[in-house]
Design goal:
Distance between the termini: 92 Å
Order of helices and strands: HHEHHEE
Strand content: 5-15%
Strand order of the largest sheet: 1-3-2
Number of helices: 4
CATH superfamily of the largest domain: Winged helix-like DNA-binding domain superfamily/Winged helix DNA-binding domain
CATH architecture of the largest domain: Orthogonal Bundle
Radius of gyration: 26 Å
Structural class: mainly alpha
Shape: elongated
CATH topology of the largest domain: Arc Repressor Mutant, subunit A
């Protein structure tokens, strides 16, 4: 006589239930992976058209989990040096942020202007030429 487990089910019945759950989980994981690949394709197309491709209105990344942070060829400081180095006069923070992004710097930040402002304040290579105006240190 087969032994019964908890709830009056036989071991064979319990194994069948476990197999069914395992198969359903595998099916869902395959479906999730397919959707994640499609989302990555859409993000790439959005980025190619100048969007941030995050699918969240500029906050964080979707699809890739922890790997969705934007990677740039040059650091923000290098980009700021390039923008301010070409300018003969002080520039406003908003104009600097726009020029950095126009130069190819990508970000998912909802407040990129604030990040640029903090970087300009902290880094000794830049100096304030007035309220909201910055230039390269001479």
């Amino acid at each position: 006589m087969p032994r019964s487990g908890s709830g009056g089910y036989t071991i064979a019945q319990l194994e069948q239930m476990l197999d069914k759950c395992k198969n359903e989980r595998q099916k869902l994981e395959r479906e999730r992976n397919k959707v994640a690949r499609r989302l990555q394709q859409l993000d790439s197309r959005i980025q190619a058209l100048g969007g941030n491709g995050s699918g969240r209105g500029g906050r964080g990344g979707a699809g890739g989990g922890a790997g969705s942070r934007v990677r740039n060829e040059k650091s923000l400081i290098e980009m700021l040096e390039g923008v301010l180095g070409k300018s003969n006069k002080p520039m406003r923070v908003g104009d600097i942020a726009d020029a950095v992004q126009s130069g190819g710097y990508r970000t998912n930040s909802a407040n990129f202007r604030g990040i640029v402002n903090q970087t300009l304040i902290k880094d000794k290579r830049f100096t304030s030429a007035g309220r909201g105006l910055y230039q390269m240190k001479k």
